[in-house]
Amino acid sequence: MFFSRWQEDFMKSKWTPWLLALLSAALLRLSFPRPGIWLLAWVAFVPLFFSLERRDTAQVFFMGLGAGYVYNVALLFWLIHVTVTGMLVLCAYLALYPAVFCLAWAYSRRYFSFGMRLVFAPAVWVALEYVRAHLFTGFPWALLSYTQTPVVIALQVADLFGSWGLSFLLVFVNVFIFEGLAAPGALPLRSKRFLVPAAVIVMWFSYGLWRISQSPVEACPLRVAVIQGNIPQEIKWVERFSDGIFRKHALLSELAVLKEEPGLVVWPETSFADYLDPGVNDRELSDLAAELHVPLVIGAVRLENMRYYNSALLYDAQGRLEMVHDKLHLVPFGEYLPTRRYLHFLEDVVPIEDFTPGDDFHLFSVPAAGCQGLRFGVLVCFEDIFPELSRAFVVRGADFLVNMTNDAWFGDTSSPYQHMQASVLRAVENRVYVVRAANTGVSCVIDDAGRPVADVRDAGGKETFVCGEAAAVIGATRRTSLYTHVGDALIIVVSFIIFGMIVWRRSK
């Protein structure tokens, strides 16, 4: 009764709904790094749901749009280091997704029962996340599921249904809490309506506890070292600094070899500060790998037949170039202009040369104890935010994944921590280790349960914009993952749920 009376009095003010919508935006933002208060994601939608009560369609849409815009600006503010206009336009586009979700929620609140809303709202949210991950080349940054990366038990369900399944559960919990607060007299714990959602939450965490209690079979152990050069972006491509940049990475690699005795050393994206033409100007890389007598994976802009590639290259312990892999998913307006053919004026606004995407999922291989070798796929730059790319490497036989990136563009902000969250989910989804080498951080090794087991940090514990090396033992876990086998099957399920419920409503 209290909540019903409070709701009625509080909602009389014309500004109250907007304040509640903005409160949801703030709670959702705070659930991501930094500060990363993960528990807020469990209730972040509740104020928004209250704000939409008894609103017309236009109000619902614009309140969702406003909250979505504020949330995305607060989340992606670090893009101003690259482009202020681009950041504002991107945030306006991303705000459309919560606006559509709000319309769907208002529709379900009007026409569906409590039980149907518990399923319909999460299904719509997940469907919208999936569309955002693929439309206009896709931008699956900061999926709702990523808020739970500090909670290892909660993460484990991702090996069943991917990040989408975890996002579904979080919206499910939000709907349940709202319904409990909004119900006349509030929802008593003994209510039958409470039991089913509570059982789902118990099963969710029970599954997580069971999965992390299992010990993976650590076949073919391999110690891997990651190098974090901390090269400022403003000097990265200045010719007179290129020798010093190489020496810095070489010295860190020598230190890692002396301290850790790794079987593989990984450098960040474009850590070779020049256009690389293998066989022409890569002698120092070849000599370094041979001198260390350790396989070396480096990132470089590769030049071949007057085409530029953002590439990962593996030099074996004898200094031979073993394998080259080119980045598959390029950054629009960063590595190519998707509208160059039609909007020529953009060449003056964004004066960049188009990179060429890779054409295959190349697997690298390095010797490991007890087996002929471990195979791994390399995710360059932001490719680790795309679940299908990581899964494709594992399906093709990758025993672990490497993400080499350079987030120096965005300053010492929350960006690298948000980015690392994607790698954590990729590890759990496919039950493989993920090795991250980032120019300015966060460089770390993540186990197949989503736990960082080693990272680069200074004496004060700072992980970003410091230089250093870190190493950990990884291996082929031999753990199975339903998600690796079935992929995004949950998206088909939620699509049927949405379509079926709408058809059911229309037929009445």
UniProtKB/TrEMBL annotation:
Location in the cell: Cell membrane
SUPFAM superfamilies for this protein: Carbon-nitrogen hydrolase
UniProt pathway annotation: Protein modification; lipoprotein biosynthesis (N-acyl transfer)
Residue ranges occupied by any CN hydrolase domain in the UniProt entry: 227-480
GO cellular component, one term: plasma membrane
GO MF annotation terms: N-acyltransferase activity
EC number: 2.3.1.269
Transmembrane segments: 57-80, 87-108, 114-131, 164-182, 194-210, 482-504
Top-level taxon of the source organism: Bacteria
Keywords: Acyltransferase, Cell membrane, Lipoprotein, Membrane, Transferase, Transmembrane, Transmembrane helix
Example GO biological process: lipoprotein biosynthetic process
Pfam families (alphabetical): CN_hydrolase, LNT_N
Bilayer topology: Multi-pass membrane protein
Family listed: Belongs to the CN hydrolase family. Apolipoprotein N-acyltransferase subfamily.
Protein role: Catalyzes the phospholipid dependent N-acylation of the N-terminal cysteine of apolipoprotein, the last step in lipoprotein maturation.
Protein name per its UniProtKB record: Apolipoprotein N-acyltransferase
Provenance organism: Velamenicoccus archaeovorus
